[in-house]
Design brief:
- InterPro entries: PsdUridine_synth_cat_dom_sf, PsdUridine_synth_TruA, PsdUridine_synth_TruA_a/b_dom, PsdUridine_synth_TruA_C, PUS1/PUS2-like, TruA/RsuA/RluB/E/F_N.
- Belongs to the tRNA pseudouridine synthase TruA family.
- This is Pseudouridine synthase I TruA alpha/beta domain-containing protein.
- It comes from Staurois parvus.
- Keywords: Isomerase, tRNA processing.
- The chain has about 400 residues and is of the alpha+beta class.
- It folds into two domains: about 45-155, Alpha-Beta Plaits (2-Layer Sandwich), CATH 3.30.70; about 170-310 and about 330-370, 2-Layer Sandwich (Alpha-Beta Plaits).
- It has twelve helices and ten strands.
- It has helices at about 1-40, 45-50, 85-95, 135-140, 195-210, 265-275, 285, 310-320, 335-355, 355-360, 370-380, 385-395; strands at about 55-65, 110, 120-130, 150-155, 170-175, 210-215, 230-240, 245, 250-255, 305-310.
- Strands 1, 2, 3, 4, 5, 6, 7, 8, 9 and 10 form a ten-stranded mixed β-sheet that branches.
- A hairpin with an 8-residue loop joins β2 (about 110) and β3.
- α5 (about 195-210) crosses α6 (about 265-275).
- Residues about 1-45 and about 375-400 have low confidence and may be disordered.
Amino acid sequence: MASLMEENILQASSVGETRKASSLQEDSETVEENGHVAKRFKPDHEEQAKKYPKKKVVLLMAYSGKGYHGMQRNVGSSQYKTIEDELVQALVLSDCIPENHAEHMKKMSFQRCARTDKGVSAAGQVVSLKIRLIDNTVEKINGHLPSHIRVLGLKRVTGRFNSKNSCDARTYSYTIPTFAFAHKDHETQDESFRLSQETLNRVNELLSLYKGTHNFHNFTSQKGPWDPSAKRYIMEMHCEPPFEQGGLELAVIKVKGQSFMMHQIRKMIGLVIAVVKGYAAPSIMERSWGEEKVDIPKVPGLGLVLERVHFEKYNRRFGNDGFHESLDWTEKEEYIEAFKKEHIYPTIIQTEIDEKSMASWLATLSIHDYDATSQQQNVNDHKVSGAIISTSSCLCSPTN
């Protein structure tokens, strides 16, 4: 009897061990299966991160700036939409950057070459950043962008490349109705005006005065005459022959410089217009680079376009090293011109026809006090006491 009980216990124990072993085996297989399944169903962005590691690139961009508050993002503010808001969203949706980095683009080493102002367009903007080089990267980014913002090209660059710091120069254009150059006293001030060769030569004489290094503290805000960063080098500035489109005669002013401050180009052009139209004396040009404050009008932003950015030093060092491409974008010229003809020029022309922004701005030229600072200087030259200094500064303070 005892032996029978022992036999039953042994059998039960054996069955238990077998079930336990079977259970352990099942658990083991389940863990293995779960592990395998977990790998198979990992979130797409993690899988993408492994398959497409981040690489440093530059993106060539073109956009129509109408309706946007410039290029640079205002993180945390949805009130003012910018071009970068659209770009970052497209980069996230195309899985080129992680969503959690969208609010902190410094993690992606993001840098734009130029901060275009409100309403300003670009045909050759360049941004640098680290992205995942997914299949058909450019096409997928553009698939999440509106038609008036395009990525036209992508190139790999060195790990330390910074589009702002590596840029040697920037070229802008300003498309302007030629009636802006009509003299205020003896020429028609509307669309019937046609620019003469004599006036075009006069415009170019004045524009050429900007070439070289000058103190442009009067051509921007919040910079004093002794701020070293107010000195800028202008390589070229000229007005091209006029052409007609959409019932308007237009001309394109082009300027190339190392870098530009906010509103600088618009004020450079505004001052030349004030002189050509007869509101200001030609001497104001040289006076504007001096220490005194000069009242300078600023043309509307509508016609301003960032045409291209230049990377001569980078191209000489890395453009032919066998690993990196030259950043001259010659192969994209056809696409750049097509974008300008489809999205930029029609917007500039139609907006001018509909809103008459240039005509409205020209009407404000007469309210500027172009002689205020010269009067101030005359007073200062005859100061004899602190009382006179105080009085003159109160009576003759220049307009900002």
